Amino acid sequence: MSTALLAVNTAAQSCGVAIMVDGRVRAAIRLNHGQTHSRFLMQAVDSALMLSGIVLSDIDVFAVTQGPGSFTGLRIGISTVKGLAFGTDKPIVGVSSLEALAWQAPGSASRVCVMLDARRREIYWCLYAHRHDLLSPITSERVGSVEDLLEQIEGPCVAIGNAALLYADQLEEKTGDTIQLAPAVCHEIQPDTLAQLAWQRFQQGKAEDPDSFVPIYLRKSDAQINREKRKIDSFPPVKR
After folding, report:
1. Residue 139 domain-assigned?
2. Vertex 181, ends 175 and 183: CA angle to 5°?
3. Is 222 in contact with 72 (CB distance < 8 Å)?
4. 15, 125, 166, 169 — which has fewest CB within 10 A?
5. Of residues 83 and 237, which shows the higher confidence score?
6. Shared-domain flag, residues 25 and 73
7. Do 13 and 90 fall into the same domain?
8. Based on the domain organization, do 157 and 181 belong to the same domain?
9. SS3 assignment, position 154
10. In this predicted model, what pLDDT tens digit does every residue of 3-58 receive, in sequence order?
């Protein structure tokens, strides 16, 4: 009997959906329309199912980018997948946004520097290394400035992700030829990459508890920071 997986990515500006059956991608759709993902995500899911020749009840496992990335985007993708999983009583597999991007780097790269724009002049980043045909993290996933990242880089590597494009001039100025940009087609998460990573994890018996499955943000949202600031500012000054 066939096993079908539906993968959803909403971690950054682009939105993607892929259907994989028995380890092979049947359909992959990526949208980069600049609008909120909630407007088109379910249309993309319906289109991917139609192109794959299956229906939602045929899906055996759901996959989604867990973060880090856009706070709003992650909430949309994860809430959608959790709703689909609860409705069909099927498992969920979460995949790191940074790991998905790392797997899109050229295979010849011995080290990969993944960079996602976190706004406020910060980036989400992680360093990976190819070892024995496997890609493994050599740092934890972090959020900070480009300068924080540059202090951790030793030797040549390939930079990938939307922040690699955003800070390309600064990277070149600081490192010269040490950091090379990945090809242009690599800097957005491809839904079929997400599906392949999720498929591997599912085959290894790795799945999330839908009740406790939440986004990985790495930092507080701007809205939360503003709420905390307003709360502090609302206290009257202490008289001495």
Report:
1. yes
2. 170
3. no
4. 169
5. 83
6. yes
7. yes
8. yes
9. coil
10. 999 999 999 988 999 999 999 999 999 998 777 888 899 999 999 999 999 999 99
Q: Determine the residue type at 200.
A: Q
- Smallest Cα–Cα separation from 2: which of 15, 27, 19, 14? 19
CATH number, domain with residue 32: 3.30.420.40
Q: Are residues 115 and 140 in the same domain?
A: yes
Nearest to 118 by CA among 67, 186, 179: 67
Amino acid found at 187:
H
Express as a percent the part of the chain with pLDDT over 70. 91
As for how many domains the chain has, the answer is 2
Q: Are 10 and 75 part of one and the same domain?
A: yes
Check pLDDT > 50 for residue 162: yes
Which residues span the domain enclosing 146? 105-186
Question: Do 87 and 199 lie in a common domain?
Answer: yes
CA dist 238 and 34 (Å) reads 47
Is residue 25, in this structure, part of any structural domain at all?
A: yes
The answer to whether the beta carbons of residues 123 and 117 sit under 8 Å apart is: yes
Residue 74 pLDDT class (50, 70, 90 cuts) = very high
Per residue in 86-133, pLDDT (tens digit) is: 989 999 999 999 999 999 998 778 899 999 999 999 999 999 998 877
Residue 86 shares a structural domain with residue 31: yes
Residue 181 lies in a domain: yes
Tokens at 201, concatenated: 């994890």
Taking the C-alpha atoms of residue 7 and residue 77, their distance in angstroms, rounded to an integer, is 10
- Tell me, yes or no, whether 237 lies in a domain: no
**To the nearest whole number, what is the mean pLDDT of the chain?**
90
If you ran DSSP here, which 8-state letter would residue 208 be given? B
**Model confidence band, residue 225 (pLDDT cutoffs 50, 70, 90):** very low
